[in-house]
Write a structure and sequence with these properties.
alpha/beta, five-stranded mixed sheet, 11 helices, globular
Length: 371
């Protein structure tokens, strides 16, 4: 294993345009991320066409900034890597094609990287807080939680994965976004719900979808439970208004009422929002942690690795550390969300194993995690 191998990595799977230079799979020479969050916030979610356009407009400047710390510039790069899936097709195409073009012009090896795998490898990167931390020890159980993915995997070695379970519907991050929208907290939902839940009183308990005898997850029912809580509160408030009963039944024989899913959620008092945010967060965290701990015990994991954008959630970090039977490793917040450093880390271990890709590698928006 050549610890001096230096990889230029590119990540454009969703709404972050990122480039990084990684040495030896662990040392971050540079890690540049251009966020598009302000572009998408006005729409309340990610708009694929907007994301693709912003990648095209931004990637050149991001690459130049990532290469700046290298004294020898391009001469110091040994290989080029990029995400080829999963993600938004148009967004993936930008980074993948730029990376292949660079590798072809510079006559450098090219490595395609699975975005989910890369999130796991964020745990291999060294940070200023732990500049000499040892690499994770196999076998490990990895919990990947993000806006598009929620899964548990067993890693027995580099490139050796066993998928234990995954979401059957909404990913955890997707559920955070949807519930934040219901509560009027805006986008992105994860940080907004965490802030709203801080210091909130208890009293509301939401269901947990345990899916017994399985390591799979389900969060769509939890989202619906929050909606029912909101509707119940609104019905109680409406019943307390003067003359509330006078109009009851007037819809009989008339046009059908607008279904609840099609109506916007009216303003809710901050106390109600806080209680529901806390209850929702506790339900998600409880299921994620319980299944991860069970998997770690069942498969004799030496460590638990937490990864993905939702790994930035402080409540999830605290509860997993409290309940885990083995050490828990979590990247710093900046390495939980999409970034190119994690792409470079994953690419190094693939490259070290002799894996390279040809110019015909295409994007795979629905790419799964496999060995």
């Amino acid at each position: 294993m050549n610890r001096q191998v230096t990889i230029l990595a590119i990540e454009t799977s969703c709404d972050e345009t990122a480039a990084a230079v990684i040495r030896g799979g662990r040392t971050i020479i540079s890690n540049v991320v251009a966020s598009q969050i302000d572009e998408h916030r006005r729409y309340g979610g990610i708009v694929p066409e907007v994301a693709s356009r912003q990648h095209i407009l931004t990637i050149d400047a991001v690459l130049r900034e990532a290469l700046r710390p290298l004294p020898g510039g391009w001469n110091d790069i040994h290989a080029v890597a990029a995400t080829y899936g999963p993600g938004l097709a148009g967004a993936l195409m930008t980074g993948l094609n730029v990376a292949k073009a660079i590798a072809w012009i510079r006559e450098l090896p090219f490595v395609g990287v699975n975005h989910i795998e890369a999130h796991i490898y964020a745990n291999w990167l060294l940070t200023d807080a732990q500049p000499e931390a040892p690499a994770p020890q196999f076998p490990v159980v990895a919990l990947v939680v993000s806006g598009g993915h929620t899964l548990l995997a067993l890693l027995e070695g580099h490139g050796r994965y066993r998928l234990l379970g995954q979401t059957r519907d909404d990913a955890a991050g997707e559920a955070f976004d949807k519930v934040a929208r219901l509560l009027g907290l805006g986008f992105p939902g994860g940080p907004a719900i965490q802030r709203a839940a801080e210091g909130a009183p208890g009293g509301v308990v939401l269901p947990r979808a345990w899916l017994r005898d399985s390591y799979d997850f389900s969060f769509s029912g939890l989202k619906t439970a929050v909606l029912h809580q909101i509707r119940d509160y609104q019905a109680r408030e409406a019943a307390l208004q003067p003359g509330a009963g006078k109009s009851a039944g007037k819809r009989s024989g008339g046009a059908p009422s607008t279904p609840p899913e099609a109506t916007a959620t009216p303003h809710l008092p901050p106390t109600v929002v806080a209680r529901l945010a806390r209850a929702f967060q506790e339900s998600v965290v409880d299921v994620l942690v319980t299944k991860t701990v069970e998997a770690a015990r069942a498969f004799g994991a030496a460590e638990i690795l937490l990864a993905g954008g939702v790994a930035a959630n402080l409540r999830l970090r605290e509860e997993l550390n409290r309940r885990a039977p083995v050490p828990v490793r979590v990247p710093p917040v900046a390495l939980c969300t999409d970034n190119a450093a994690m792409i470079g880390a994953a690419a190094f271990y693939r490259f070290d194993a002799g894996i390279q890709h040809g110019w015909d590698l295409d994007v795979q928006p629905n790419l799964a995690l496999d060995g």
